[in-house]
Design a protein that fits this description.
With 541 residues, the protein is an alpha/beta fold. The chain is built from 13 helices and 26 strands.
Length: 541
């Protein structure tokens, strides 16, 4: 679901008025041409091509809205099946949907949203398409500029402005690392298709290196020691898929290496799969124990560094994982799946509201001075930093100092409450969906199911012009997780519990029906059958 540039360690640029850059070299379409085809439609700009952004772009009426998606990725990734692609159960293409698909009527710009002016309804976007001059040089060669001289590679693309009538913020979140040293640089994440490709390549590298005659047995043990940090559904499903790969396919190719394989799941919580009933979680725990997958709860990761403990000359590309309980030990790969952290775009680029949007915002109560005289910021959740929204997903503003008092609040009321009551403003043309939004009535789970339901509801509401009708209500359809060896667990929205082979059939059927296109609805079962007959693809590329 990421649609902005990773801005860690850098400061967000302030929005400065400038000439509108009409040409976008990598798009093939100018903003002038976009304006010319708009007609009397409203332009809806969607930031992000994840679950919320992609589903909403397909849901909006193309007769009523000109839909424009802005994202650094030109595709949508079906995240529940990424673990399957990482081990070759499915091919990468089966989880991808192009934003530019035919007959969708969706315009697309590949870029990062850099800043927003809510008063002028204008976005500042940085292009995310690499030009030849921005591509990294071949290994061992210096960067070359067009005049043949060495040049420093530019890290920023060109900037252009884009006007909107309605703005949807659906940029998604990043993986939470809790500031653990070395994790962001050395861990393998599972948020995008590029992550899945890295994981598949690394697994096969570990086995190929371990099979070499020059590799010692202690090094083999560390190469084939796979750590999974996070006891939620993503971490559990990846560990299960990795177990299937090792014991169904790789054991036929590397029979002597099977005794060296070790898969361990680490979690700081006292139990895994906390969103499931204790009976289902215990079933998963006992199944993993029988399969030889280690579960280490209440373990704190302290660091992850390249190389092996003691810095041997031949480390096989391994890493040193350090836990508070077990100290340092070598691992061939560490897959990190411990929740989400707020997107830097939400944290920094949207930190300041430059000018109060008088024409599109409504105050919750009158105030004594004009709102344009005050400094405003987006209302955020105090813990996660997510954008607070009402039941129509409209983003809210609050005074920056937090103490603007309503002119209708009496002194007695203030004394009774014990503090001033801050006035809020609701923007009727700016919405937030998915992981970056937080309901005022209560925070919803950060899952694909929630994001998809939110996007469908908002799309239908905008199509009908339902600005003040009944708000969104989440319909919990349940959760399910694959456990390996054709077994799964499922907990329905009404508390139904299913486990074993039946749950596995439901798990596969549910994800097959949720695939976005008929192309992938056909490809997914086709690859399941092909891999069941011929085995998984273990090509390393």
């Amino acid at each position: 679901m990421n649609s902005v540039r990773n801005l860690f360690g850098s400061h967000s640029r302030s929005f400065r008025a400038g000439p509108l850059l009409k040409k976008t070299p990598r798009r093939g379409v100018s903003t002038q041409e976009l304006d010319a085809t708009k007609g009397d439609r409203e332009r809806v700009v969607i930031l992000g091509s994840g679950w919320s952004g992609f589903v909403l772009s397909r849901e909006l009426s193309k007769k009523k809205f000109q839909t424009v998606v802005v994202s650094p990725r030109s595709y949508f990734a079906f995240t529940p099946l990424l673990a399957s692609t990482a081990v070759g159960t499915l091919e990468f293409r089966t989880t991808l949907e192009s934003v530019r698909a035919r007959r969708t009527g969706v315009e697309f710009f590949q870029g990062w949203a850099d800043d927003v002016d809510f008063a002028e309804k204008r976005l500042r976007i940085e292009e995310a398409v690499l030009r030849p001059s921005l591509l990294p040089p071949a290994k061992g060669e210096p960067p070359i500029s067009h005049d043949g001289k060495e040049a420093q590679l530019s890290k920023k693309g060109q900037i252009f402005d884009l006007k909107y009538d309605k703005l949807i913020v659906a940029v998604g979140c990043y993986s939470q690392t809790f500031g653990t040293p070395g994790v962001r640089e050395n861990a393998f994440f599972l948020k995008d298709i590029t992550d899945a490709r890295r994981i598949r390549k690394r697994i096969l590298e570990c086995f190929e290196t371990a099979s070499l005659p020059t590799t010692s047995d202690p090094l083999r043990d560390q190469l084939l020691n796979f750590a999974v940090v996070g006891g939620g559904p993503t971490g559990i499903e990846f560990a299960a898929e990795l177990f299937d790969l090792c014991h169904e396919d790789l054991r036929k190719l590397y029979p002597s290496l099977i005794p060296h394989i070790n898969i361990t799941i680490y979690d700081v919580a006292p139990k895994i799969l906390p969103m499931f009933d204790s009976k289902l979680a215990d079933y998963a725990l006992n199944l993993f124990k029988r399969d030889g997958i280690n579960i280490k709860t209440e373990h704190h990761i302290e660091s992850l560094n390249p190389g092996l403990p003691g810095s041997p000359t031949n480390d096989g590309g391994c890493f040193t994982l350090k836990t508070k309980q077990d100290g340092e030990f070598g691992v061939g790969m560490c897959v990190w799946s411990t929740g989400l952290m707020m997107n830097p775009f939400i944290q920094k680029s949207l930190d300041t509201v430059h000018t109060y949007p008088t024409t599109s915002a409504t105050l919750s109560a009158p105030i004594s001075s004009p709102p344009t005289d005050k400094k405003w910021s987006l209302k955020r959740h105090p813990k996660s930093g997510g954008l607070m929204v009402d039941d129509h997903f409209r983003v809210k503003l609050v005074p920056r100092n937090g103490d603007v008092q309503s002119s209708t609040t009496s002194l007695n009321d203030t004394m009774i409450i014990g503090r001033r009551t801050p006035t809020e403003a609701t923007m009727h043309d700016v919405f937030a969906l998915g992981d970056v939004s937080v309901f005022e009535k209560g925070q919803l789970p950060a899952t694909a199911q929630v994001a998809s339901q939110e996007a469908k509801w908002l799309g239908q509401a905008l199509n009908k012009g339902n600005d003040n009708g009944k708000g969104f209500t989440y319909n919990n359809l349940g959760v399910m997780t694959y456990l390996g060896n054709w077994k799964a667990i499922m907990q329905g929205g009404q508390g139904q519990e299913i486990k074993g082979r039946t749950a596995w059939l439901i798990w596969r059927g549910a994800y097959l029906t949720k695939a976005m296109s008929w192309r992938n609805k056909l490809l997914i079962p086709a690859y399941w059958v092909i891999n069941w007959i011929f085995g998984r693809d273990i090509s390393r590329f």
